[in-house]
Amino acid sequence: MQQQALAPKPCCSQAPTRFSQRMRRSVAAAAGNVPSEVLDTVVVGAGISGLVTAQALQTKHGDKVQSFLVTEGRERVGGNITSLQGDGYIWEEGPNSFQPNDAMLQAAVDAGVDKDLVFGDPTAPRFVFWEKKLRATPSGPDALTFDLLSIWGKIRAGLGAVGIVKGGPMPEYEESVEQFIRRNLGDEVFERLIEPFCSGVYAGNPSKLSMKAAFQRIWILEKNGGSLVGGAIKLFQDRKNNPPAPRDPRLPPKPKGQTVGSFNKGLRVLTDAIGAKLQDKIRVNWKLTSISGTPEGLYKLTYDTPEGAATLTARSVAMTIPAWALADLLKEKAPAASQALASFDYPPVGAVTLAYPTSAVREDRKAADGSVPGFGQLHPRSQGVTTLGTIYSSSLFPGRCPNGEMLLLNYIGGATNRSVKDASQEELVAQVDKDLRTMLLKPDAPQPRVVGVRVWPRAIPQFNVGHLDTLDEAKQGLKAAGLDGVLLGGNYVAGVALGKCVEYGFEFAEQVSKYVDAAAPAKQKVAA
Ligand SMILES: Cc1cc2nc3c(=O)[nH]c(=O)nc-3n(C[C@H](O)[C@H](O)[C@H](O)COP(=O)(O)OP(=O)(O)OC[C@H]3O[C@@H](n4cnc5c(N)ncnc54)[C@H](O)[C@@H]3O)c2cc1C
Ligand SMILES: C=Cc1c2[nH]c(c1C)Cc1[nH]c(c(CCC(=O)O)c1C)Cc1[nH]c(c(C)c1CCC(=O)O)Cc1[nH]c(c(C)c1C=C)C2
């Protein structure tokens, strides 16, 4: 094991993979190519949301949407999916895995990378650090014996779930996650399970996150069934009466259990593959700088490009850039929409990837064969640990680091600790290393190898109380400003999970296709 003092610099060159170099060359070759015709749509933003939308336009809606371009402000596609590799490590600077729903598997099949899918062990425990100990969260059979909740906490949760003991009925007002969970399942479930869960999905503050917007699938259970269990039974019956359409036989089998997925070389395998498939339709280094409607009901998009300013004209715009970026663009043309979009909160998150020798891990965390089983650990804010949570990257997926080492992806910051934005890389590494020594590592563990540090100043949109109303205001504001063909997508609309962004990408392509079809008179007007 190579050791080094805490180093601010990633150990590996951040050179792009061979795959992305190929892509960049071909995209660069097309960069000067500015179509003069009116396009059916322009997809703005080439993160996972924009790429899946574009792929679905091409594979499913070619009859209605015959011409489109994808424009991306950065020099590469993928958005905050940023897998890197070098020196025997494969690591993620942004998202680390996805829930493998059928939409995600479909996107992988369509991009030709389903053979590269990898899945975590469904039995790998998730741990919560509570009262100085890492404790496994319940995963089914151990629901009665796990020690994260007291007996009373379990009884309260059980009675609350069936609706016998609750802190009152569902109120008229929009509840925060904290209010909803304390009322339904009690204080212990909130403090020991859901509060850290909110870190592990939103890096968020559960007293601000909206139950309805952030965890709609759980919120709807009580709404429809009077209690969480009542709602689950109703959902089960509804599904039995209305079975889903048969699965596409080309899809890989659904992985068993509650697991997560990635690709052999990291998440960017998918976004790079979609980018390569769409290469002549993608313009990178094209930053949208203004948007306006024309009297014919079309949209003019102006860009900063390496060749200077460029303008595209389109019948519709599939907008997948972050809300704050769009808010800046709409300040003058659609001030109400701009104000609504600007109010979405994107707190900062740091992703700190460290490698330690496996011998540095506490013996009680190891299995008989010396491996360190688990998905990762989360740290409730009340437990005196600054780091939000740690993914056991090398336990979760194969080939992530050299033998004899453990690769840990640590997230720090979020809605309750915005100071990470101004911290140096050394400070972040030192804080994470200190925290790990109190939970997972032997106190005399050697200094880590610093594999990568990346701070996202505006990381994840918070689905806080009022989110859905504000989103409606943004859409109404666009209509009022005559920009109703500027359709909103991206994670602040779809949901922050990669699986949600992909599901919505398919829906969004359909929405675009319908809009373009309905806008056909404008097409004829221009042709005439
Ligand atoms: C640190 C972190 C960890 C996460 N972990 C997970 C996880 O483990 N699992 C999970 O499911 N999800 C995770 N997420 C959430 C998930 O990664 C995101 O919700 C998802 O990637 C968002 O994709 P998107 O395409 O909607 O947006 P983005 O990825 O933000 O893409 C938007 C694109 O628009 C471009 N753009 C912006 N402005 C302009 C402009 N003016 N002109 C042209 N282009 C522009 C940007 O450059 C960017 O490429 C995580 C997110 C972060 C930040
Ligand atoms: C600590 C910071 C974060 C970690 N992951 C994320 C953040 C902000 C982001 C994130 N993680 C997940 C999703 C998708 C949710 C979905 O509905 O698909 C997002 C946006 C997945 C996830 N990660 C954890 C859980 C419990 C979940 C939900 C799905 C599942 O059970 O698999 C746990 C977890 N996340 C992080 C850590 C360290 C961790 C530890 C167990 C990091």
TrEMBL record:
This is Protoporphyrinogen oxidase. One of its GO terms (cellular component) is chloroplast thylakoid. Belongs to the protoporphyrinogen/coproporphyrinogen oxidase family. Protoporphyrinogen oxidase subfamily. Residues 48-512 form the Amine oxidase domain. Keywords: Chloroplast, FAD, Flavoprotein, Heme biosynthesis, Oxidoreductase, Plastid, Porphyrin biosynthesis, Transit peptide. Residues 238-262 are annotated as: Disordered. NCBIfam families: proto_IX_ox. Its EC number is 1.3.3.4. It catalyses: protoporphyrinogen IX + 3 O2 = protoporphyrin IX + 3 H2O2. Pathway: Porphyrin-containing compound metabolism; protoporphyrin-IX biosynthesis; protoporphyrin-IX from protoporphyrinogen-IX: step 1/1. InterPro entries: Amino_oxidase, FAD/NAD-bd_sf, Protoporphyrinogen_oxidase, Zeta_carotene_desat/Oxidored.
